[in-house]
């Protein structure tokens, strides 16, 4: 919107919300927000924010999407490991190193691995 107004010849000044917050006097509503913005804009030492260019905005959006994607990948990986752990606990199977050990094998004298036997249940 700021770029569009600037293309019509207007001088655009943006105020960051963190700079307007000290000027809000009571509960938040549109009238109080507008009053705070006007008071902040008339303040002699107010710092204004320059509008972002289209390339800056695109880059920020791309970074936001990539961060969200990474967060969902981490969440999916943690969920899979938690599911695996719940399955092992449900089957009363414990893993020592990379060899699964079940309670009935602790009591028997047969070796942990036999030719052709599977080491893992999942």
Principal-axes geometry comes out as elongated
Largest sheet at a glance?
A: 2 strands, antiparallel
Note the total helix count.
5
- Beta strand count: 2
Protein name: Transposase
Structure description:
This protein is mainly alpha-helical. The chain has helices spanning 2-7, 17-20, 30-41, 54-90, 103-107; strands spanning 94-96, 99-101. This is Transposase. InterPro entries: Transpos_IS110.
Summarize the structure.
Strands 1-2 form a two-stranded antiparallel ribbon. 52% of the residues lie in helices and 5% in strands. It has 2 domains: 1-51, no CATH class; 65-109, no CATH class.
Task: Chart the SSEs and their pairings.
Blueprint lengths: L1 H6 L9 H4 L9 H12 L12 H37 L3 E3 L2 E3 L1 H5 L15
Antiparallel strand pairs: 1-2
Protein name: Transposase
């Amino acid at each position: 919107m700021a770029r569009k107004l600037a293309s019509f010849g207007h001088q655009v000044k943006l105020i960051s919300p963190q700079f307007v917050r000290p000027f809000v006097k009571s509960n938040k509503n549109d009238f109080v927000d507008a009053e705070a913005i006007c008071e902040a804009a008339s303040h002699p030492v107010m710092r204004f924010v320059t509008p972002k260019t289209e390339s800056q905005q695109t880059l920020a959006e791309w970074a936001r999407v990539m961060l969200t994607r990474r967060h969902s990948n981490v969440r999916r990986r943690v969920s899979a490991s938690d599911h695996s752990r719940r399955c092992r606990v449900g089957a009363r199977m414990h893993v020592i190193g990379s060899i699964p050990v079940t309670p009935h094998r602790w009591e028997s004298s047969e070796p942990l691995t036999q030719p052709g036997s599977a080491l893992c249940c999942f």
